[in-house]
Specification:
321 residues; alpha+beta; Endonuclease III, domain 1; five-stranded antiparallel beta sheet; two-stranded antiparallel sheet; DNA repair; DNA-7-methylguanine glycosylase activity; DNA-3-methyladenine glycosylase activity
Amino acid sequence: MTDPGSEAASGSAPAVRRWAPPQPFGPHDLRRNLRVLQRGPYDPAYRAVGGAVWRATRTPLGPATLCVAPDAGAGEVVAEAWGPGAEWVLDRLPALLGADDDPSAFVPRHRLVAEAHRRHPGLRLVRTGLVLESLIPSILEQKVTTDEAYRAWRLLLRRYGEPAPGPPGRLPERMHVMPGPRTWALIPSWEWHRAGVDDKRSSTILRAVARARRMEEAARMDPAAAVTRLTAIPGIGPWTAAETLQRTNGAADAVTVGDLHLPGIVVYALTGARDGDDARMLELLAPYAGQRHRATRLILATGRTPPRRAPRFPRGDIARL
């Protein structure tokens, strides 16, 4: 008899898990919840095809491709996985889909938030348990436009990542697993430059991957200790730590401070004022202590944003300098 695990690792057949969310879990918005893991519309590590979400990831056991789709008739989620890390990702499927999240702890304090909470009962905070795969793209997003960061992530994964394991003809084209720490460390300076990544961000990534094991331990820490662990690396501040822990730890209170747009959106959505800053945002979010990230997710889900009063921030291209 063929070992299903070995078939999944070779890419010839998937390892499969069906998961039925427990009754108190309530409704689940699979695509919306997992979308926070996507880094732009052409992310080589993420695809949404039909009702299914595909992820290429690097686990402690090696690369894996995960395909997750709802089976509405059975009230279950069906997950298939390929590669050496297939069993690892399937073991952690419930956490990835928000089973460790507790939305019952959230109490809306504003009418807009209450309405968003009612309209999006399936919102759950995901938990990947993998730090570098969220930390590195978050570093790439520091002080640049999202388009620039997405381009850098895409180019680096396609050049230095490895093809995602899975069945030819079914696996979405050009999916790649991100490089391992050693490969990141060996990327030459001119390739960072070609991808539009300046020395400050590339140096921060290199410092992080040099301490990869210490970084990954943050996924099993309480929020305060995890922030301390990540920000011990020069170049990683509260913004980057929050953006990472929201995805790796499902951190409900990891509000993003220092963002170019979020304070303005939160303040405008809750007050109508157009001069929002971090201090005012944190003041408005104070009633949601312990759940501030969830509150901002719900506010963003309303689509209520301040009118643009200035041209879009111009895109830079350090490769041309």
